[in-house]
Amino acid sequence: MTREPVLTFTERGIYCPAGDFYIDPWRPVDRALITHGHADHARDGMGRYLATHAAGPVMRHRLGDIALETVAYGEVRRIGDASVSFHPAGHVPGSAQIRVEVGGEVWVASGDYKTTPDGLSEAFEPVRCHAFITESTFGLPVFKWKPQDEVVAEINEWWRTNREAGRTSFIGAYSLGKAQRVLASLDASIGPILTHGAVENTNAVMRAQGITLPDTVRVTPDLDAKAHAGAMVIAPPSALGSNWSRRFGAASTGFASGWMALRGIRRRRSGDRGFVMSDHADWDELNRAIAETGAERIFVTHGYTAIFARWLNEQGYDAAVVETEYEGESLDAEAEAEPSEANVSAEDEGKVDPNEAVATKPASKSKSPKKNKNTSGDAGE
Amino acid sequence: MKRFARLFTRLDQTTKTTAKVDALADYFGAAPEADRLWTIALLSGRRPRRGVTTTLLRRWAAERAGLPLWLFEESYPIVGDLAETIALILPDAQSESDESLAYWIGYTKELGPLPEEEKRVRVLAAWDRLGTTERFVFNKLITGGFRMGVSQKLMTRALARATGIDEAELSHRLMGDWSPDSTSFEALILTHDPSADLSKPYPFYLAYQLDDGPEGLSDPADWSAEHKWDGIRGQLILRGGRHFLWSRGEELMTDRFPELAAAGDFVPDGTVLDGEVLAWADEAPMSFNALQKRIGRKTVPKKLLTEAPVVLRAYDLLEHEGRDIRDRPFAERRALLQGMLSACPPEANLRLSPLLEFDDWDRLAALRETSRQLGAEGVMLKRLDSPYLSGRKKGDWWKWKVDPLTVDAVLIYAQQGSGRRANLFTDFTFAAWDGEDLVPFTKAYSGLTDAEFRQITAWVRRNTLQRFGPVRQVKPQHVFEIAFEGIQESPRHKSGIALRFPRMARWRHDKPLAEANTMDDLRALLAAYG
Ligand SMILES: [Zn+2]
Ligand SMILES: [Zn+2]
């Protein structure tokens, strides 16, 4: 008798036939297990949600009034014929790898993860399994993160220098996870810390669940920017360079992201500084994490999937790429799918909906572009 | 090297000109003389010869990192820079080096004649002693193409501040055919004898683009105008019985255009001309295509000399009877030039760039419209009383280009950029209608804002129909206005045409797919301007 796989990859997301549930689905389903609150993993429109206690508040904040049940890390739930449990993924506070066991066979869907502790997220925990579903956002050997205390020292040093020169320091960091991590690493004795509304809303949610963050001041339309010269301002990357940030006068801009390891990308952002700080595993972390699972089968979901899967195959794993709709660490506005909030105006957010301008329908004329016969040959020239 | 790596980091960490000049001036004030000279050399495009092929470097880097070569090769286009890819992929250094920049340049230069195995040992030893940024610099020294986001102008400004020498004077001293091996900081910068180097050119004066037409300029009577010729800017120097031809990029092109040796037989010694090198036949410029065959050839086969002969179309006189006359008014320089060239027969291979007669701006605008037919890119405006300045300075020289040609085309393929734009789709292929079909006819990479690139990237991800390696075929849905400077027949392309300098001028959200241009439209443009 051939056994059905523990997890399968469907058009709606990762599916468990034995338990009839999905993990991080991207289309509406009845029952969804969610690894963490980022918009590409926790989406709208599911019948029921299951996540960790620590991920719950952020999910409610982002998705509104949803049918959400939460569990503790390590607590085993029986769903149909499957046993499921959540284990720390070290990605953002509340993030989890989801372990699914059916008839003694164990699969782990890890969502997004990093193995180096960041001081805020529950530390990554290796889970032994037969099959491991991994991301590969930074799955290239050129990505090797420096020790985080070096990066933290760089950030504080930069802030201090700016403050002495009377400049405001802006750091672009996405509002769930990275922003709090930057915040927690700041030396609050240097000066006041201001936050963009989108960041501050997430801060409030996290503080309410008992996570300690330094004191911050929310930037509101009537805030006297001049009175805060030399402050540190943390905002989503999309808000930097917008009208929102201009009122602060002389400023220096930094971005905190794993992508800042590449000089080309650092320069494209045309910020003043790039700080290499990622919530995703680097090359060595990915390889070590996979080895520690003891898994023989590896599924690579997002990032440099083809390259990383080929590498894993050469290392003796049975690795395959699966197409998903997860995204890696985005520098841009798309990752910041924040709910619209009464106290943050659209202009304040400085946000562009990529769908809106693009969705112009082609004119329906008889010209059918399906037959553009000699097109493929030219593309690679 | 640590000091130089710190300078590199400081320059890299800012986009502000003043901060860059500060960093450089600090460096010039503190670094050892040999390092200063090498830094000036590197920042003005003079670099040591490549002693190791990049193929070997890639192989050794992959080996040292314990990675298969294919993985290195896959990573390289994503990083976009070979020196950086190597620096990132190598394991951490085992020890440190306190040696200077000049030491490491000497080290790379000595690699050249060594047998391969010896090169390998030395390169690996160097990598093991250098931190990530130093390694990056070291690799750049070997592979060449060192860009630090600092123009020569900026470097000169910093050097002027550090040495107290006038900036214009310095930029003159820095020109010409020197290398750190042939001179010293002392000799080149501090005690320079201008007569020592016959070949030394003057810094070029560069025009600003006139975007809104000349109406905002003063009285038309204050201005001189001529066509803007579409060739290679060149400075022809006749001194000491010899001739030298310099490009704007400060490259000596004398041997590439042997025709210009003839000038020395008709023009007196002690003359320096500024003008445009043009492929020339029947007393008219040939297409840029013809000139293109001559570019990049160090020596010219006989056949090309007859197929695409060149002349210098001169428009300014910088040195007359051995005297620098750049501070005299343009009108006066022009009169001297005219007198000199009117005495020259065609065999001199010099032609005077004719002046355009106009009394008012409307007349000039009409003359500008004839540019494309004459093989010119537009018109140049020069203030009659202006001196010949150096570098790009606003006010006295303006280029007023003809509007680019444009077509509306359909986006059909997209490819990710590299380096600066590694996580964006920036390389696009565009098509025009041919009956029911879309025929690709050009690629374009530039012209959109970063926000637009992000927007189209998100769209491409969701609307990919097929993948061909790194190329994605996307749903034909978006129309872009493609602007370009010229159009040529090209048997190499399926469409049969090739555009010159294509770029995305506008994203035509308003334009339905069916209203994009057709191949017939393109063929009509080819007939008119090809
Ligand atoms: Zn995430
Ligand atoms: Zn994700």
From TrEMBL, chain B:
Protein name from the UniProt record: DNA ligase (ATP)
CDD domains: Adenylation_DNA_ligase_Bac1, OBF_DNA_ligase_Arch_LigB
Gene3D superfamilies reported in the protein's UniProt record: DNA ligase, ATP-dependent, N-terminal domain (1.10.3260.10), DNA ligase/mRNA capping enzyme (3.30.470.30), Nucleic acid-binding proteins (2.40.50.140)
A family per Pfam: DNA_ligase_A_C
Catalytic activity field: ATP + (deoxyribonucleotide)n-3'-hydroxyl + 5'-phospho-(deoxyribonucleotide)m = (deoxyribonucleotide)n+m + AMP + diphosphate
Enzyme class: ligase
Keyword tags: ATP-binding, Cell cycle, Cell division, DNA damage, DNA recombination, DNA repair, DNA replication, Ligase, Magnesium, Metal-binding, Nucleotide-binding
Species assigned in the record: Brevirhabdus pacifica
PANTHER family hit by this protein: DNA LIGASE 1/3 FAMILY MEMBER (PTHR45674), DNA LIGASE-RELATED (PTHR45674:SF13)
Enzyme Commission no: 6.5.1.1
Lineage summary: Bacteria, Pseudomonadati, Pseudomonadota, Alphaproteobacteria, Rhodobacterales
Gene Ontology molecular function, alphabetical: ATP binding; DNA binding; DNA ligase (ATP) activity; metal ion binding
Gene Ontology BP, a term: DNA replication
Cited PROSITE patterns: DNA_LIGASE_A1, DNA_LIGASE_A3
